[in-house]
Amino acid sequence: MIQIIKTLLFSGLTIFITISLIQFPDQALEASIRGLNLWWEVVFPSLLPFFITAELLLAFGVVNFIGVLFEPIMRPLFNIPGVGSFGWMMGMASGYPTGAKIAARLREENQLTQVEAERLVAFTNNSSPLFIFGAISVGFFHDASLGILIAVCHYTSNAIVGVAMRFHGRNRKGIKLEKQKRVSLTTAFKAMHRTRLKDKRPFGEILGDAVLNSIKTLVMVGGFITLFSVLIKLLFLVGVTPAIAELIQGILSLFSLPIEFALPFLSGLFEITIGANMITQITTDSLLPQLILVSFILGFNGFSVQAQVASILAKTDIRFLPYFFARLLHGSIASILTIILFKPLYLDKETSQTSNMPGFQESDYNVWTNIFNLIAENGALFTFFFLGIGITILYRRNIKKQ
């Protein structure tokens, strides 16, 4: 019966999208171009270096080196092996869906059990500092000092989710707890050396595989971004989004939040960038309601990012449901922290001239802004260049096989 319902649901959704595309071709094309521009101008160039670096570090055993050193920290806090620290650090540096990709790779290499991989995915998919400082605080809010508040709430709540998820699957049978081993640089180096020797591929092949695997993942990401950009537009045009927004108005009223945020908030639940931009365009007496909602959708990740993560996890036995539960938890905790820290991290800092304090210079914010602008200006060329490299590698490999 469940399978029949799924068949009807999936086929019905596909028919709905097809009919809507035929009915609104111009608006669908506009939304598709908007999503595609976001992908090749910002997403692809900002994530590709991190993806390639992660592939190389895994191949050369550096992740194992880091794992041995961080085992005493990761196991007590998050109940996962030390190699999970690599996914955590890379996830914070580059943003989603890097954490899911690394967790999937570690699972494929049996460096994590299924439950450990699910714990890792739960708290390693978050926004990058580039997106928080460059796009959200400067690009949307036009206030660089908000970046600190948003970042602290986002990453702190993410760590809290990781600690909470350490209890996930704790009572499952077949899971053995490893004894704590003594940590040393020598042990870490030996682990790294063993991993490198196991990989018999020459350096050129390793580098080529790293580029190809990263490009394939990012092409998939681009497809989801474009799809959800079109889907959000179609749902709005046929009246589905406004209808759901009326229900969300009641929820916002319960939390004393302005009901005019209902439609932008709903858009943010689908796609973060679109929703955050719409939220910041609504004028209110206080920034707090906007920050609460933006913090939630950043932690929730949006259905677009969740679909990307689900696609990556589908190749493994890592289940999606724990990740989805963690997203709800992350968004809720981030919103609560925003309420608590709004005054000490923003209002009080504004009155005491934050820019003159050590560690919070205006130039620090300008670094993120300049990086974001640089990627936006030259991102398309970077994307086309590496797509060309990927096509060249595939062509040469096909020639060798013939």
Gap between N and C termini: 48 Å
Give the helix level as a range of percent.
over 70%
| Shape category | globular
SS class: mainly alpha
- As a whole number of angstroms, the C-alpha radius of gyration is 22 Å
Report the mean per-residue pLDDT as an integer. 85
Give the count of helical stretches. Answer: 17
How many extended strands? 0
Order of helices and strands: HHHHHHHHHHHHHHHHH
Pfam family, one: Gate
Protein name: Sporulation integral membrane protein YlbJ
Keywords: Membrane, Transmembrane, Transmembrane helix
InterPro entries: Gate_dom, Spore_IM_YlbJ
Give an overview of the whole structure.
There is one protein chain. This protein has 402 residues and is mainly alpha-helical. The chain has one domain (24-167, 183-401). It has 17 helices and no strands. The chain has helices at 2-23, 25-59, 62-78, 84-94, 98-108, 114-124, 129-140, 146-164, 185-198, 203-237, 240-254, 262-270, 272-280, 288-300, 302-313, 321-351, 362-401. Helix 10 packs across helix 17 and helix 14 packs antiparallel against helix 16. Residues 353-360 have low confidence and may be disordered.
